[in-house]
Write a structure and sequence with these properties.
3-stranded mixed sheet; 3 strands; alpha+beta; single chain
């Protein structure tokens, strides 16, 4: 699995978002900053991100993913 493929998929699911993916092989750290997460609890945010890559998780291409799903305000330093 390539970082670029994951980034592209997440940008398709979360347009106009800031997406960063790090990792190699089948273990990745994902950071998605999106207004789509406004008023959503952390679990729901993670479920939305998982849904975008679920087919890769099911087929074993993506084994482990660590997710940070933030609103734009939460991402500000």
């Amino acid at each position: 699995m390539q970082v670029e493929l994951i980034e592209q998929r997440l940008l398709e699911h979360f347009p106009s978002s800031d997406v960063k993916v790090n990792g190699d092989g089948s273990h990745f750290d994902v950071r998605v900053v999106s207004a789509a997460f406004l008023d959503l609890r952390a679990v729901k945010r993670q479920q939305l991100v998982y849904a975008a890559v679920n087919d890769w998780i099911k087929d074993g291409s993506l084994h482990a993913i660590n997710i940070k799903a933030l609103t734009p305000d939460e991402a500000q330093p």
